[in-house]
């Protein structure tokens, strides 16, 4: 397929269609409206259904029902709307259902603003709703990667029977880049779902449920979920290590759009005689901690940068240990750091500020 | 800002300068993401370079980021007036139609300078225009439809014609020209441009609306002769990219506030 020029949000919508998703439920909110807008036109072209729900709570419960029936389905929202969905997401995780959720983050807390942020990292990676559960979280940093990861998200959701969250900041959703769709899933090739509620004629009933009144049964269910998350940690960690100027003194740790800004800063630093590299987590849960530890072992300084007041920073510090100094530079509220700001921070660390 | 590298073609042999072929009030419409804002901002700088007074009206009530208001400081530094919401509302995605925009629709041509309207994409974006359409004087107004056939829902003639008709109906104005703007950002090649011109010519033939010029960015514009050049015999608007992501290089000398999209 020839390359197209797409906004991140549009590419996410098309990637879902190419992955065999035929159902979308959602409620509008900036800056992700181009996902529902795109799918409202696109899904009918492929025999799919677009539903604008009456609220995010309703959308997440529609997702619960559709995935229980064995359908590949998607919802998308932005920060405050994702918060509203959390009840449904907890039920979906408890019921072990495969869904894909896209969060195009905006500035918070509360209603916040409509400009980009990464302030939902903790909500995304530590569960988000109530109970002991995790979503697998993928963080794209280009429009192409957003498309690729959405396709992977549907496969991973099926593999683990677990919600997969694609976490992008507003910039990823709104910027336009060339994109191609590298594969297209035929509906007949989708994995069979023996657990789905598809009509029980000739077999035992399948029941989708998250109510376990017997505490020992509920406890066993919780540990079963944990074993899935441990399996994810063993097999699904992804990251990018970018070190184009040789052995680095400063290691940036950043994901999403901020990783792009860090790359620009790294090239500018090379011209000033400071070698820097980037460690970019692609899976935020599971967090690629072992790989980070290896990358950090080779540098003098670690500088985490986020569009938050320091959320991924907690995971970085956890993996590098309390004796390893980790610096932080964040902008919030929708303000985005410039490459120059990151250059200045790195120069300070390298003792070359001036 | 490299003056020599942007701007409008001068009146060369067999061609007219764009400021001669465009009417005093130029309204940019198009399908969603077709490139109206980049063209509006470049036209503003180009017309200003040729000594004309210019006012740019940001009438984009659809997209939340990357609007022409983003380069307010750059425009104002060059003496170009920007009409866009102020204060908190600068950042909002609210359907704000400023009274001043209405006045400029009505009296813009009488100011003795150029007025550019940057309208939101699709028929949805053109609705804002529809609410002031009765104020425009058709003799002094050009309504342009920007086309990039690499965008979704704009790939073929039927889709484009349907979009154009929907925009025209929502705007409640007659389209007077087409603009070829087919590109793939940094991956654009000469072939991309020429295929885009051919596709726009098909739309021209199907609708009878004349194709007026072709917009091309940066080095590629130079490959077609730069300002004053032609692409497949069509005048080109040689553009510089002003609407850029925070990690991309800004035009030299840019004064816009950083940290905002």
* Oligomeric description of these chains: heterodimer
**What is the tally of beta strands of chain A?**
14
For the biggest sheet of chain B, the summary is: 9 strands, mixed
- Categorize the overall geometry of chain B: globular
Query: What's the CATH first level of the domain at 16-179 and 199-205 in chain B?
Result: Alpha Beta
* Helix share, percent of chain A: 40-55%
How widely separated are the two ends of chain A?
50 Å
Query: CATH homologous superfamily of the domain at 16-179 and 199-205 in chain B?
Result: P-loop containing nucleotide triphosphate hydrolases
The CATH topology assignment of the domain at 16-179 and 199-205 in chain B is Rossmann fold
Question: Into which percent range does the helicity of residues of chain B fall?
Answer: 25-40%
CATH class of the largest domain in chain A: Alpha Beta
Approximately what portion of the residues of chain B adopt beta-strand conformation?
15-25%
Tell me what the CATH architecture of the domain at 16-179 and 199-205 in chain B is. Answer: 3-Layer(aba) Sandwich
Give me the CATH architecture of the largest domain in chain A, please.
3-Layer(aba) Sandwich
C-alpha Rg of chain B, in Å? 17 Å
Largest sheet of chain A: 7 strands, mixed
In DSSP terms (H or I, runs of 4 or more residues), the helix count of chain A works out at 12
CATH superfamily placement of the largest domain in chain A: Thiamin diphosphate (ThDP)-binding fold, Pyr/PP domains
Shape summary of chain A = globular
Order of helices and strands of chain B: HEHEHEHEHEHEHEHEE
Give the C-alpha Rg of chain A. 21 Å
